[in-house]
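seq:
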Amino acid sequence: MFQIKSLKMKKEKALSEYFMKNNFTFYLYYLMKTVHRFFVYYIFPDKIAIQNKFRKKMGYKLDLKNPVDFNEKLQWLKLYDRKKEYTECADKFKARNYIKKVLGKDAEKYLVPLVFHTKNVKDLRPENMPDYPVIIKTNHDQGGFKIIWDKNNVDWKQIQMFFKNRLKWNHYWNNREWPYRNIERRIVVEKLLHNNKVLPTDIKFHCFNGNIKMIQVSKYDTDGIKKFAFYDNNLKRIENGIINTKSIPQLGEYQHKFNNIDEMFNLSVKLSKNNKYVRIDMYQHNNNFYLGEITFFPTAGYIKYFTKNFLKEIGTWLKI
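struct:
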């Protein structure tokens, strides 16, 4: 199977290189590719677009009638599990209000301090920033953030241009994750949690039908690379079923010390209630913890850091 895929990639590369050598064929190739992307991203309905991308990314046909593994069931959820509040939860700004509604008066202490929010990139300038480090991020996509350690040592025009471009794109079209489609796009500025420029540990609670089944920990190793570890709901490290990849490098001989774990469990259960699947993300910082994002489709349902057998096992946890 690997050799077949490798040969296919070589043929595609050779074909693209051939087109590049001639101006006419280059423009023809570019036109065909643009038309194809237009249909895939904008014309095809969600179901067809998801089926096409799944086959391309995962290498096998998506079975929506009888989904078995975790990736397949995540794609099923994209299409058939749609609640109005999911858009609020996926919005990194409005999720704060959702958390307050669910947790009540105590919610504020679990939220990362908000500096301000805006829809105008011109508001991103030093006089609007505090004297402590902040993180600037968009509320509607993945990876749209910048860390500002010193507001006086930043090219603010470049920062404004970065966020101007991020605000133009509707993240929904990437992988047809429908909760992102109708998010009112804006920029959020929050206090940066850190200790001497060391960012906090991420702890992500994978909740299936209201029950925590798996915990994902990510932290920066001694080599400065963000690495990962997975635990079951008894806090025992999961070794089998995890693949060490470039995108998700695994922490070696490491056992995380969970602080406030009972409280974190309690909040995750409350926030995941009545959901078939959701991941509750938190930051562990100075013996406290803060709520981060609410995620419905990790890696957009194209997970490659679990073995096929483990993906099937996780699929049994998710009742649809």
